[in-house]
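Office hours follow-up: a student asked to see two folded examples consecutively, so here they are.
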Amino acid sequence: MNVTIIDPLQGDFPEVIEEYLQHGNMKCIAFNRRGTLLAAGCSDGSCVIWDFETRGIAKELRDKDCVAPITSVCWSKYGHHLLASATDRSLTLWDVKSGEKIARVTLQQTTLLVRLHPGSCTPSICLACPLSSAPILVDLNTSSSTVLPVSVSDSGIGVLPHPRNKFADGSPPYTPTAATFNKNGDLIYVGNSKGEILIVDFKTIRVHAMIPILGGSIVRNIVFSRNGQYLLTNSNDRVIRIYENLLTQKKAAVALEEMSSSFDNLQGTEKLKAVGSKCLILQREFQDAVTKIQWKAPCFSGDGDWVVGASATKGEHKIYIWDRSGYLAKILEGPKEALIDLAWHPVRPLVVSVSITGLVYIWAKDYTENWSAFAPDFKELEENEEYVEREDEFDLVPETDKVKDYEVNEDEEVDVVNFDKDPAFSDSDASMEELCFLTAIPSPDAPEQQDKYVGSSTKVEESTHSGSPLSVDVEQNDQAIILPDLILAEGGNSAAEETVGNNSSKRRRKPSAKGLELQADQVRKPLKKGKSSNKSFKSKNKKNDQDTNGFAPEDDVTDECL
């Protein structure tokens, strides 16, 4: 899209369904870091990688040991690996470029959400959120796991869940629901059923801070923005909350440790809450005050300026888009199919949603192009404005131009070699090669039809070079290729199969009844032309024989010649 002809007054959020992707029954999706590849987990245990530029399938990852539906997919930082969790309690790590399985780990419970460690170039540690137990850190190389603390005792020490999902003091069952890494992966943010956010050190597995959520409802989702400045939580009280992250992006764990040591005069949960107040601050709340609907798959836009959430109501495919200040900008209404997953493109104003039928819908902006030819300094107004004339507006040399001439430094050197980094990818390591695209391998659409045509063309060449009168006469009427091919398609299957057997080892499918009927209809039409040409050829032969021998040839001789 040409940026110069786009109306700048339009918002950078999607508005309409541009197209949809279909391959099996897809359940979950995830973009790579650049947004060039889209991974989708299917109900048959396979993972499909789409080239998002061409909207074609770039690779399909299939494990013969896994036929259960995929629940979550996650890319590594540089796009070389893909991690998938399935309902058979397995975690599978794939090499995207080669399509080979690197590791497979089986847990005790089904994993609903899985995340690879964002700070590792060769990922081996992942964060898994099981169905009915505490989040765990899993080492994919050694298959070892570490359970994260899900609660804090009065003394301020993190408490692991009871083996029967009960606290040690006999309180009701407790189920944490969400966890995520921060941008660099040195801290883990855990949401629990008490309506609390725990900040856990990745290395020591120690709780350093606690942030209570208003209402004390179960935390269903917890998501960071791409730049790491904002945190989103979705609770059972049907409210989406946005927090501002006050910690530094780099070495956040060290800064948190120093902050915790400054509150040594406090003890237990009071100290954790005091530290938590310096880590996160509530900025905005989003909810539907009228319908009080439950939200599903909330997330940020690529630049963090927009917040998107889907309706969890059955049979509805509605997507709500707010700006970060709390203004509801757009409600997208899709087909009458329930929405199960949602993702915003990392760079472009695009939203991809997954319906319960397995289709992936791509929501894009409905651009309004402006082809008006105005001067470069012309400003198009939406409404009338009062214009104030400048004093030097009609001077031969305005004062503003004189000032501009003095500000230009012609001796300054212009750097044309170096370039500024994109702030969205400022943490990229120049030494690491990022995988953005996959090599496409073309495959024939219908190999059985091509094999049939190969056999037919071989037979045609033999008939055209045989020197028979029929081939000569038919060639004059432009039927040298059509007639033998159609006759062979109807009755010469054995010869075609012999030819195909020499050229290809693929098995041919038996033609359907509809295909045989269409072939028979096509044969009848050319045969009528062939009969008329045969009659002319027959009469011509009779005339020649009468002139030479003085008598008409027998019918069986003519038929044998034909």
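And the second, which I mentioned at the end of office hours:
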Amino acid sequence: MRSPISERSLIIESSDDEDTHSAAAAATIEKRHVHDEEEQGAGSDSDSSSSSSCATPRRGPCSPSSPYAQQWPQSYRQSIDILSSVQSPNLSFLGTPTLSRLSNSFLAVTDSFRSKTPEIVSNFIKPLLSPTTSDEQQQHEDTQKSSQYLLPSRKLSLQQIPEDQKQLVAGHEVSPYRNCSYTQGVMNGINVLCGVGILSTPYAIKQGGWIGLGILSLFALLAWYTGMLLRHCLDSKEGLETYPDIGHAAFGSTGRIVISIILYVELYACCIEYLILESDNLSKLFPTAHLTIGSLTLNSHVFFAILTTIIVMPTTWLRDLSCLSYISAGGVIASILVVICLSWVGVVDDVGFENKGTMLNLPGIPIALGLYGYCYSGHGVFPNIYSSLKNRNQFPSILFTCIGLSTVLYAGAAVMGYKMFGEATESQFTLNLPDNSVVSKVAVWTTVANPITKYALTIIPLAMSLEELLPSSQQKYWSIIMLRSALVVSTLLIALSVPFFGLVMALVGSLFAMLVTYILPCACYLAILKTKVGWHQIAACSFIIIVGVCCACLGTYSSLSKIIQNYT
């Protein structure tokens, strides 16, 4: 792995370069000591001055004693950090042909992108062009090296490093990130939680009745509790940094693989939701749009789904996604803006809040469970946020703030939307907004813009995990382009086949969010800390697992049944 911050990492190279890099490592240690002495002289003010970055090393998850470093997926930490963190923009395409050099663009998050060396910067700005003859020769030389993050071959030799410095070397072998402030942690958490799920909260009340607000509050409380369980799991053993690491510690390699697959499928399903969302809302803006090719006519929904795919596909080829991550951080602002527009339409545009609704609609409860569950599907990212905090004792407060503020937004949108539109409420409340209102157009365009920036960030973790599995002979420039493009096209095909936004969201929330948010954290906690937990913790975890399993079964069955009914 080659980190973009030369002072904070070591380089894993082949045995031919061990002596050179052992010496370099010793020099790095000496330089680090000098830097530490300078920091000590700076006093306590250094803490506040460094709070803007989320890239300071903590303990090394890939230290020699860690059993998690070389297990698939190795790219999870870096790709999820890019998805969840606000980063400095740096736009470039896949410009190097090998997977080894490709992975360099995903190694750092947030402000660490500001400190690249000129050599690395030059690598980042290469255009998306076919390699020339000299490039092919360089490619052959690169493939002889093992300085890879995704597929590392061997560790750096520590023989030439003094004994008292080996622990320091091990701790910085991979550049972890622990410099996020309280505010950054809250913003990252809300950015993950407040997504497209907010659009369907009025529809959830339509499905289940006003009792759904109680279900939403219960899910929020349980989500906070299970988030704290993940924290205890991370603290239980050295080297645990991510959700797959927790699965590995709890259930071995099988647990790691199963949890990783669940997380990646959930992200894949979110990308399908993005395309359905774009198709529905753009069709509302341009209902008469169509495309005729010979005897084939594409209606507005199909046309805009294909158009959106064409737009987002090049963004998945970007080597450095920090630009998209920086823009997508506006998702928090976008969610707030959409809710403000909704209230404006109700108050100023005289739509009114006249609908009373029902307290309980029992047949629709299973769908409502899935929709509410989807709202709290951020647990795949919470371990990364916790690992990145400068002060990890703030995590309970950060988690409570994230979930609390998100719940307020969800509940506000749900109450206003259902009071405004009643039984006519669509699966996305933006589809109910008046066509002739300027505020409505602002809300719809805001809804359209946000998923376009988040699509690549959401699909890339899955793409990188699959790239790890490619044979060495297939780790080529165009192979990676083709793999990512195929993933994008597959989401389009599924979105066109199942264009039911609310039902797909309910299915994802029932099947995957219940597992990731409620069932698996409790199961992993009991498996890892089984000898240290009290009876009340066992009872609480058992209760949450039972609730999660029941909600998952009911919601999944009901969602699939209604999807099938739409085809019959």
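Two things to take away from it. The two ends are 53 Å apart (CA to CA). Residues 467 and 479 are 9 Å apart (CA to CA).
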